[in-house]
């Protein structure tokens, strides 16, 4: 008995009983159905739009095809790009249907994100007779996704950046050095690596206190950043040891750049808590990447040069 009643139910009744906004257009792009959920969402009554081609009206400022119109016209990828560049994909579930997500600035107060799917409607002979489009507001989900992406970005930055000096930390150093080494090999471009180490830093800490040592580290971090070109990257490699990766820089130029930095630091006047004036120096080692170098061998070359600078009296740069 109840089955018979359901057999007789029309498309309009069915559509009006689902909580998802939906409309149907025929092959002439004329609206045949506009359900109650879409009336509520769009503020347009079915009486006013059925029989028209106004399906674009709730979504756009001026007339343009909706996804359902493109389905009716048989528009395929990549021509869909013209209207929904990189925002659509074929439905995993329905054959011939296209799903898309987009932001509609003219809907609601500040705009809404919609997820919409348009599917072809075919008759018993498999001929296309129209298309149905359903819409879901996904603004809250999108907001949550954006917030999550931002948090992840911030977290990644925090886990890569040293708090004290605001330079990258050593974890990030090895990733980046590997990438730059690979790039220099592939494009046959020079790559230099500099290791810097403050001289007698233990003595500074012991004599003037840890906070004073921190102040020196911060200042050196600041000076390094000041001197960096946009393609260089600097790292706090260890306690008072720093590294600078210099892509596209020959050994001699890297040497000159580090020397400039060393001289600048030597001219900075630090003042201790008791007002004492202190000068600080650094030693540096510069190495140049050769075709056969790994990250390990390049770091080792730079470290050896740094050791040489320390051994031969400090406050100098060696390669
Ligand atoms: N203030 C401060 N000191 C640190 C930090 N990290 C490491 N150090 C100190 O840096 C000092 C490094 O000392 P050493 O490795 O003996 O080297 P050095 O005294 O600079 O001697 P040379 O490198 O041979 O000139 C140690 O006393 C560490 O405690 C930090 O974040 N802040």
UniProtKB/TrEMBL annotation:
The keyword Transferase applies. Residues 11-51 form the PAS domain. InterPro entries: Diguanylate_Cyclase (IPR050469), GGDEF_dom (IPR000160), Nucleotide_cyclase (IPR029787), PAS (IPR000014), PAS-like_dom_sf (IPR035965), Rev_trsase/Diguanyl_cyclase (IPR043128). SUPFAM superfamilies: Nucleotide cyclase (SSF55073), PYP-like sensor domain (PAS domain) (SSF55785). The keyword Transferase applies. It comes from the Bacteria. It catalyses: 2 GTP = 3',3'-c-di-GMP + 2 diphosphate. Pfam families: GGDEF (PF00990). Its EC number is 2.7.7.65. Keywords: Nucleotidyltransferase, Transferase. CDD domains: GGDEF (cd01949). Residues 189-319 form the GGDEF domain. GO terms for molecular function: diguanylate cyclase activity. This is diguanylate cyclase.
